[in-house]
Design goal:
Length: 108
């Protein structure tokens, strides 16, 4: 079972929260992170999540677990590349294979 350790700000100190246990507090974030990393390395599978003072995730580390790749982000460059590729395919098809004459209509 994966063990998750959260490091976060709590009442003027830094806490390390383990699943199913009360948080352990430290004077500095550095001390809290060191203890969380030490405990994470001891476990067979663990992850350490470090939160900033505002609660947002600053850092995420895993130990004994496969690394999960972040999905590619959609951006303006990617959209432009796709549009250019589709445009090229359409133009190539139009130039290579003209529309056949319809039956019963004179060709121009």
């Amino acid at each position: 079972m994966t063990k998750t350790l959260h490091v976060y700000r709590s009442n003027g100190s830094w806490a390390v929260k383990r699943e199913g246990r009360r948080p352990e507090t430290f004077g500095t974030r550095r001390e809290a992170v060191q203890v969380a990393v030490r405990d994470g390395k001891k476990a067979k599978a663990a992850q350490v999540v470090v939160h900033g003072s505002d609660g947002r995730i600053l850092e995420h580390r895993t130990y004994g677990m496969p690394i999960i790749q972040e999905p590619p982000k959609k951006g303006l460059v990617t959209s432009r590349r796709i549009a250019a590729a589709v445009g090229k395919v359409v133009l190539d098809r139009l130039h290579a294979d003209p529309l056949p004459d319809r039956a019963g209509t004179p060709a121009k």
